[in-house]
## 1
Amino acid sequence: MGTSSYLAFLTALSVFTALFAIIYQAYLASNDLKTLTVILQNLKNLEHQYAVHRPRVAIGYGSCSDLYVKAVNFLNFTDNLEHLLRQKTFAVDDINTEDDFLQSFAYYFQRGAAAERFTVNRELFQNLVKLAKKSSSAEPRWALGGNAPVIGSRLAAEGAEVLLGAKMSSKLKSHLKADITLTGSLITDDDIHLILEYKTGDEWGSLRTPRANRYILHNDHHNPYLSSLDEFEQGLQGFNPHLFVVSGLQMMDNYVYEPGVRENLLKKVSNQMQAQSTDALVHFEMASFVELELLQLLLRHVVPYSDSIGMNEQELDNLRHVLETGKISLVADCNPRVAQSLDQARAVIRILNEDYFRHHVTNPKRRMLSRIHLHTLAFQAILVVGGSKWNHTKNAAAKASLTAHRHVCASQIVNPDAAYRLLDDSFASSLQDGSTRIPFTEHDPVSCWNETIITNEPSHRLDVEICVAPVLICKVAKQTAGAGDNISGAGLILQI
Ligand SMILES: *[C@@H]1O[C@H](CO)[C@@H](O)[C@H](O)[C@H]1NC(C)=O
Ligand SMILES: *[C@@H]1O[C@H](CO)[C@@H](O)[C@H](O)[C@H]1NC(C)=O
Ligand SMILES: *[C@@H]1O[C@H](CO)[C@@H](O)[C@H](O)[C@H]1NC(C)=O
Ligand SMILES: *[C@@H]1O[C@H](CO)[C@@H](O)[C@H](O)[C@H]1NC(C)=O
């Protein structure tokens, strides 16, 4: 072979290799699309397997008016901030100044962790809201907010009859679905939540975020006092809910009260929970808490009277940390592995139920924690104690997964082309040695299995069913705030 023909051969070979690579990539992509399409179809089949029998759901507490902005377009990264970040002395959950706020935002943004923080500085807050409204590059928009109205709206949309414990302005009320009964009176000044949203890979100054999420700043004055509580109490008379949902208590986090006021409010919540009939199920939607004292009050007054807890990976990590070490954890891995998360959920359900086993005889109002719903970016996991009243766990996990995609993509239609998944073909069920690997197939995408959790209370074992559904993650996130609430509502509706 002469040199020139040898070169020609090489050129042809590299062209062929390049072509082959392109075709092979396309082949892989189309295969992946095929898999996603099959997963989607099977998730939908599970979602629609059982009809919803118009359950009655009562849900508290509070509401707000959400002002959404694009975080990186709205906030200005300053030299001063760069300087503060280099000092690495983050201690900002008390937000008093604009620098505190920017530093706090930077902390969570870098880690892609959801956060919800209170500022005592009303002037700072009002100024930020004023600027947000005017900033066209931040693309401000308003929506009905608050955990209770969002969970309630999702449940109503899925066919529940909803009684809502919240006060709101008539303007905000007009965003509420007609089939939701509002128990609270009308007010003139809704609490506002400034929601700073960001997408995966968004850059802000020298910082870059690993995943889409949101940071919420607020200066509530109705919600920390659970001002809807008494009117909700009246509305509950004769309603006999099948499900009672407690949410929005994170608005009491970091707020400054007169001594004893907060605990008294939580005792009232506790009484409302304990007043529910034994036929009713009680769900507590966790949230982002940074104050240890508040979490301890919740563990005393709220959690023992809950059948179920809903949370994301940060909240689960925090709860487990508090139960095991007595300390708060501010951020956790924003993309935890299934095995790690399930181990945390096992620890939480075990520790809380050991407490139940020890005390339920002397306090018959206590409820066994029989359900945990963990919502994460990559998967939905639901643990249910065997023999409890929760139905259709597998279907609920599927519905929660679909709702996650629909909400984040802001589209009722789930398009496999707009989705990707992070869950592999199989996953370890635990980080413990000798744990089983759970296979994952597109034809049966929600993996469920039974196992026994050994407790430290002699003669008490916990038989649980665990279901894990992959999320068809939305490629281009349109909204992340409110995702957890929609997902929790969707998971609950099929289980009651
Ligand atoms: C950031 O700067 C722009 C342009 O000067 C301004 O419009 C915007 O309000 C500023 N944002 C904040 C939060 O101050
Ligand atoms: C979640 O709830 C909010 C408020 O009710 C609503 O605007 C949004 O569309 C919901 N998401 C889905 C997927 O329905
Ligand atoms: C788990 O056990 C329950 C009975 O306690 C049974 O109904 C259910 O089908 C089991 N689930 C799996 C996945 O084996
Ligand atoms: C579970 O399903 C059964 C049969 O469909 C139903 O009778 C029961 O009320 C459901 N459980 C709950 C807690 O709603």
## 2
Amino acid sequence: MELNSLPDNPYLLLTPGPLSTSKTVKAVMLRDWCTWDDDYNHNIVQEIRGRLVQLASRNPENYTSVLMQGSGSFGVESVIGSAVPADGKLLVIANGAYGTRMVQIAQALKINHLVYALSEVNPPEIGELKRMLDENPDITHLAVVHCETTTGILNPVREVLAEAKSRNIVCILDAMSSFGGIPLDMRDWGADFLISSPNKCIQGVPGFSFIIADKHELAKCEGQARSLSLDLYDQWNTMENGGGKWRFTSPTHVVRAFLQALLELEQEGGVEKRFERYCTNQKTLVSGMRSIGFETLLPDELHSPIITSFRSPSSEKYVFKELYDRLKEKGFVIYPGKVTQGDTFRIGNIGEVYPSDMEMLVQTIGQVKFW
Ligand SMILES: *Cc1c(COP(=O)(O)O)cnc(C)c1O
């Protein structure tokens, strides 16, 4: 494959995913695969499943992984809908759109649940969590988002999960926008189910989600799913016993691209090195933006290196769409804000992007300034 013959993307995606991917990730999609054949099931699917558990813990033997069709939310729904038994009760921590989505999933699936709701700029507090768990001893499961991509806030999930684990509560972690980009260990953290997707920090393309699960907890999900297609146990059982076979049509090209993305994560030096690059991206972006008069929504200590929310300029002449269009013309795609409190916009720090891209972006924002 002559990579130079592949067209360049007209702009860099500075978004929370899908994001800019390497040409090599895109190039491996230029062939077809048979879902019945070992070239696909053994060499690609099983290879990916093995690599995922290695990334998730220093004790990979306790964990297994499942790939699930659909975007990230399908993976979250498959876990919530399969892990919580009919007589279980779920506590959802929600301080943004993705926490709220887990509440909506529980509502849609008619799962008995309780919500610890916070504003988008506040992380959960352990004292309040303890109080809720004391008052509701019937809670069996807890679901929390690691990096709430709504704002870029990093929730103190280690402390949250430790509290839940001390009460034998099963822990579900939405690490969609952090897995592969922020170091974590499921065993040290006490996560029983972790959900993520290829098109975030692993820098693949969208089309499926993946779940890494404690084997013992996953085994308990048999027969519990509230959906046929999103039955986590059955999907796992088929993959595990069928040598990497998916129950229904798998997104073959996207899965192949994901393997390439995993290899490139390894070549970069693993999660630690990628984390360093994202941190440098984010710091470069924030210091540059501050130097031209912008303020971040969150204080630095609450910030993840994944995505950054900026307050919109207060000038009446400022319109997000105009900034968006002008930057797109110059090769950068940014993202609208998603918070209820105040006007913001977001800039993603993840993907095949480097500190020099962040410097160029800040310079370009300075040039296109129209307010
Ligand atoms: C991206 C994301 C999801 C999943 O979103 P989809 O649009 O379904 O892929 C879930 N949680 C978080 C925290 C995310 O960043």
